[in-house]
Amino acid sequence: MNSENLIRRYVITGSRRLSNYWWASVVFLGAIGFLFTGLSSYFGQNLLPFLQVQNITFFPQGLVMSFYGILGLLLSIYLWLTIIWNVGGGFNEFNKKDGTIRIFRWGFPGKVRCIDISYSLKEVEAIKVDFKQGVNPQRTLYLRIKGKREIPLSQIGQPLTVEEVEKQAAELAKFLQVSVEGL
Prior knowledge:
Elements: E1 7-12, H1 18-43, H2 58-85, E2 90-95, E3 100-106, E4 114-120, E5 124-132, E6 138-145, E7 150-152, H3 162-176, E8 179-181
Parallel strand pairs: 5-8
Antiparallel strand pairs: 1-2, 2-3, 3-4, 5-6, 6-7
């Protein structure tokens, strides 16, 4: 067997997805608009050529718009930082060569910036599939470890179809030579 058949690595996208770039940009542009409108009403002149603020008094409308602009800027900074830091991104690695499973995720900066968990392949009991239907359906794969908790393997975001989740669970269970639960 070559080493490609002995190691499987699934990349987890994290916060660097198109929707996050979109919302961080929209919030930033909206916040700038609100802030410039509030500041224009304070100074009594149009800071941007397409803004007409003669009818907006600073107190209370301009002040409130400035407040919303500052809050929007703070929110957009937070969103951009989560994208830059790639919070939630990482990989799931299943290595038959070394007999290990490694779950790696990036987090927020601090003492524990990254989460890096390793288990022996011998500790794996099963692959569990969990389906939750409703307004916000969730289809999640879990790695069940002997005597320990279930570790989620699926990435957050667009829910996969039932067929895709079943296919992933079957492939992984076959590779690890364990059973699939929850189907």
